């Protein structure tokens, strides 16, 4: 089950509306109890400095709060990517590894030093699935499970991330990037 941890869920055209339409989710956890991730291509209009002024210099541009998903939208969580190579003195205080260089950063602790992380995002809420739910959605064709690249979580162009991820896939799948948002415009 851990095989999907650290991978991307990319919404297919089968998800026609709502928060998951054309979304890219990075899976932070996936086991027999379900799955948890954050949508990495849904920036909100709220600036991080309004909610967490001490964290502004740690957040990757655009320095906006992101909609992580439909669950617990009134709470915030920070997800960071460790610098490569990792700092000699180890990960920052409050770091919880999730998948490779990606981990959760405790917002109640001090902001990490800039050289410790390659980037950081703050999310309002998260995406969650119960046992077997995500596997069912993948089987019915709602999601593609794809390899993540290090910059996906902290892309400086989150609005084009769905297209960018689909376009870099091999074979005919990359042609999905040309699909219009509204299929009736095809």
UniProtKB/TrEMBL annotation:
It comes from the Bacteria. Pfam families: DUF179. InterPro entries: AlgH-like. Belongs to the UPF0301 (AlgH) family. NCBIfam families: PRK00228.2-2. This is YqgE/AlgH family protein. It comes from Aeromicrobium alkaliterrae.
């Amino acid at each position: 089950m851990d095989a999907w941890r650290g991978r991307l869920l990319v919404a297919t055209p089968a998800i026609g509306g709502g928060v998951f339409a054309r979304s890219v989710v990075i899976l932070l956890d996936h086991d027999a109890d379900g799955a948890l991730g954050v949508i990495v291509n849904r920036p909100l209009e709220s600036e991080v400095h309004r909610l967490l002024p001490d964290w502004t210099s740690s957040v990757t541009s655009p320095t906006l709060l992101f909609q992580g998903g439909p669950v617990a939208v009134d709470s915030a969580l920070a997800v960071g990517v460790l610098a490569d190579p990792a700092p000699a003195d180890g990960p920052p205080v409050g770091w919880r590894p999730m998948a490779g260089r990606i981990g959760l950063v405790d917002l109640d602790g001090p902001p990490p030093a800039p050289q410790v992380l390659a980037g950081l995002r703050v999310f309002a809420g998260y995406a969650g699935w119960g046992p077997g739910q995500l596997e069912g959605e993948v089987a019915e064709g709602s999601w593609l499970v794809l390899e993540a690249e290090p910059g996906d979580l902290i892309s400086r162009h989150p609005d084009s991330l769905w297209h960018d991820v689909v376009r870099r896939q091999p074979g005919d799948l990359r042609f999905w990037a040309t699909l219009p948002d509204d299929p009736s415009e095809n």
